[in-house]
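Format notes (please read before filing issues)

Several people have asked whether sequences and structure tokens are stored in separate files. They are not. Every record keeps both together, in the order shown below: the sequence lines, then the token lines. Line labels are part of the format and must not be stripped during preprocessing.
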Amino acid sequence: MNRTESRWIKYSLVGIVYFLSSIILFLPLINVFTEAFADGVSAYIKGISASETITALWLSIKVAAISVPINTVFGIIAAFLLTRFTFVGKNILMTIIDSPFAVSPVISGLIFLLIFGKQGWMSSTMESLNLEIVFNTPGLIIATCFITLPFVVRELIPLMESQGKEEEEAGLLLGASMLQTFIKIIVPNIKWGLVYGIILCNARAMGEFGAVSVLSGHIRGKTNTLPLEVEMMYNEYNSVGAFSAASLLVFLSLGTLIIKFFLEKKIQIESPNNKELTK
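Then the structure lines:
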């Protein structure tokens, strides 16, 4: 293949990818804002400032703010365990961590409903502890934690495998404690992969619908996250309100993409060898 043919194929593929991305990404975005402003700016402001929408937005942020740190800690521990130790059941653990990618979120929600519901396996325990999981915020957090389980750990595993454990062993041989080794060697080596995994985990947590829908009970003002509130308003034929609330999700997603963009630039600056990969 000569250079002219290679360049022609390259720009053809770039054009196809940009065209398909525009259809998949930009047309829905345009439609969201077109519908949100269909009745004018005042109707849009009324839609995003409705008390139910504000409550749903804060609940989405609250659920993400709790579930993301939980999965961050779990992701670091699980990635360290899977890349540094050999043990019985390692492949089973990997399968469990990847299960949210394979199991439908709705099925996941139904499983948690069977476990923590009024007729579930742990209903008597929940009653004795006076805990209400289903149709309450803890149920939303459990569902979100499960759905976002793989995002941090899956970013860290290939990174930690590629870096090896020679530096950690050297630190331990020189007398460093495990905590010192973790803070001064492991964390600096995985920091950008960790941040990237947290961003992906947060984006998924904010937009989760299926499992949360099953466990929420759709109680407006109590268990409705923003995606659920959008669906409820749309089913009530409140199109402007639904798309106005959806625009808030768009802004949250754009914020995530902006953070991701600057993170990739930062990685390019600190690791010039990665420049061609992210170019």
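For reference, the curators noted about this record: Residues 275-279 have pLDDT under 50 and may be disordered. The two ends are 23 Å apart (CA to CA).
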